[in-house]
TrEMBL record:
Species of provenance: Pseudonocardia aurantiaca
InterPro entries in the record: Epimerase_deHydtase, NAD(P)-bd_dom_sf, NAD(P)-dependent_oxidoreduct
A Pfam family: Epimerase
Name the UniProt record assigns to this protein: SDR family oxidoreductase
Domain of life: Bacteria
Span of domain NAD-dependent epimerase/dehydratase: 3-211
Length: 298
């Protein structure tokens, strides 16, 4: 199958490209830099130059493909409106291009703010609609294309997709701990974060391409929820730092922008996903990765 991947050189995308190539798919990755293009070509993937703002390149990539996996995101936390607008425009472009083709369109989403007081499940609809909402309401926008002949599948990733080399949320928390000289957690540290190892997440994406029905919401979640206190304790152990509770009023000042997320309960299940795909995570847990030096050996 000819598969077009945005975010192909990113943390999750690069692992997904490896899985797709291993499954004998013909992969074309969107690359915005010479380094990203070279990395994709070295793996045996094809390259289409462009970025999330280059809608013409995204449109052509989708036209030429038999399936699209959209993993790119600007992740500009200083300007979330710009990230949301770019995400919505890219999803709209891909959806419009695939109308009436019944081709698979898999897109990255998340489990944040889907529920309150319980782990999010696959049948929980996203509350985010419209261009001004989180991710520009891209999940709901993409799922609207199911009725227009697009085989849309939402890939809801855990807030931490961890592993050696990760530069995401856990790496940011580790950097804050080193800067502050203390590994903090919000309040009593009982709020939880779902987690999944990078390689398990990549395998889920490939299985989703092969097996997921149109309109499915898949949860890339291996651990339903790791308490933030345990995360902070593991970071403290990794960097030989004291561990302390951070009062609710001080969370933003202590952690910066990531404090908003670290103070949230982002737990989620993946029971339905495992049944649909036959997916069984086998990678190390988040705490095992931290204890093994995945974030301190840098």
């Amino acid at each position: 199958m000819r598969v077009f991947v945005t975010g192909a050189s990113g943390w999750i995308g690069s692992a997904v490209v490896d899985e797709l190539l291993a499954a004998s798919h013909e992969v074309t990755g969107l690359a915005r830099s010479d380094a990203s293009a070279a990395a994709l070509e070295a793996k045996g993937a094809r390259v289409r130059r462009g970025d999330l703002d280059d809608l013409d390149s995204i449109r052509l990539g989708a036209q030429d493909a038999e399936a699209v996996i959209h993993l790119a995101n600007k992740h500009d936390w200083s300007n979330p409106a710009a990230s949301n607008a770019a995400e919505r425009a890219a999803v709209q472009t891909i959806g419009d291009t695939l109308v009436g083709t019944d081709r698979p369109f898999l897109l990255a989403s998340g489990v944040a703010a889907l529920t309150q007081g319980r782990p999010a499940a696959e049948d929980d609809a996203s509350p985010f609609h419209g261009p001004d909402s989180l991710r520009g309401g891209s999940e709901n926008l993409a799922l609207e294309f199911v009725d227009r002949g697009v085989h849309t599948v939402s890939l809801r990733f855990a807030p931490t997709v961890h592993g050696t080399g990760d530069h995401g949320f856990i790496a940011v928390l580790a950097a804050v701990a080193r800067q502050k000289g203390v590994s903090g957690y919000p309040g009593d540290g009982t709020n939880r974060w779902a987690a999944v190892h990078r390689f398990d997440a990549a395998r889920l994406v490939t299985l989703g391409l092969h097996k997921a029905p149109a309109g499915a919401r898949l949860h890339a979640v291996a651990e339903e929820g790791v308490p933030t206190r345990e995360i902070a304790q593991a970071i403290g152990l990794a960097f030989d730092l004291p561990v302390a509770s951070i009062a609710a009023d001080d969370v933003h000042d202590h952690f910066g922008w990531i404090g908003t997320f670290f103070g949230m309960d982002l737990s989620a299940t993946s029971i339905a996903t495992r049944e649909i795909l036959g997916w069984t995570p086998t990678g190390p847990s988040l705490i095992e990765d931290l204890d093994a030096g995945a974030y301190s050996a840098r």
